[in-house]
């Protein structure tokens, strides 16, 4: 991996950590807090592409598992990964990979509507599928009850989808990192 790639990967791990400085919103009916950090996941995949987006969130997850207090509310450590939010957190590298892969595949025809669809698929549907399933297993509660409780996250996550789509499309226009990576592979 080139130094430039390492800097981008580190930058988006840091962006995700910085989004953790915003305090979590805890609700009485779900043990999983509402945070801004999935915005970092969506941005990493959409701006960096599949490989670098995956690497940035993998590094983030490894730091969290090692005990770095990078999650919203200053949480970190392996106990958080084993807790009810663990499935969401563990899904982040793969979510960035999915988003990045789909953005790379539709790079030439990328518009707001398909960027939003990609972000919803990778950043909401995939993350929720992993998170809800993991929470149900950890808490030994019905999957449907956890899925219903997670519906409270949808408005905020749709807002993050729009924000990340606008930012990623603007970066694509001004300084497209993904195109540079695809051209380097072809050379």
From TrEMBL:
Example GO molecular function term? biotin transmembrane transporter activity
Highest taxon of the source? Answer: Bacteria
Q: Which InterPro entries match?
A: BioY
Residue intervals passing through the bilayer:
30-50, 57-74, 86-103, 115-137, 143-169
Is Electron transport one of the keywords UniProt gives this record? no
| Subcellular location(s) of the protein | Cell membrane
Q: Which keywords are on file for this protein?
A: Cell membrane, Membrane, Transmembrane, Transmembrane helix, Transport
Gene Ontology CC entries for this record = plasma membrane
Membrane association type = Multi-pass membrane protein
Query: What family is it from?
Result: Belongs to the BioY family.
Q: Which protein is depicted? A: Biotin transporter
User: What organism does the UniProt record list as the source?
Assistant: Ectobacillus ponti
């Amino acid at each position: 991996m080139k130094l430039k790639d390492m800097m981008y990967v580190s930058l988006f791990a840091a962006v995700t950590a910085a989004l953790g400085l915003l305090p979590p919103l805890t609700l009485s009916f779900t043990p999983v807090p509402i945070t801004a950090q999935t915005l970092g996941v969506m941005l990493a995949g959409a701006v960096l592409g599949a490989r670098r987006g995956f690497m940035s969130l993998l590094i983030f997850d490894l730091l969290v598992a090692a005990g770095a207090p990078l999650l919203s509310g200053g949480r970190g450590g392996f106990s958080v990964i084993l807790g009810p939010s663990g499935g969401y957190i563990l899904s982040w590298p793969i979510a960035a990979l999915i988003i990045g892969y789909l953005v790379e595949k539709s790079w030439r025809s990328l518009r707001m509507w398909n960027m939003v669809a990609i972000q919803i698929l990778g950043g909401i549907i995939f993350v929720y599928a992993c998170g809800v399933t993991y929470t149900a297993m950890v808490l030994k509660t019905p999957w449907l009850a956890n899925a219903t409780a997670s519906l409270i996250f949808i408005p905020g996550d749709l807002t993050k989808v729009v924000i990340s789509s606008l930012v990623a499309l603007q970066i694509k226009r001004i300084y497209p990192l993904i195109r540079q990576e695809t051209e380097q592979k072809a050379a």
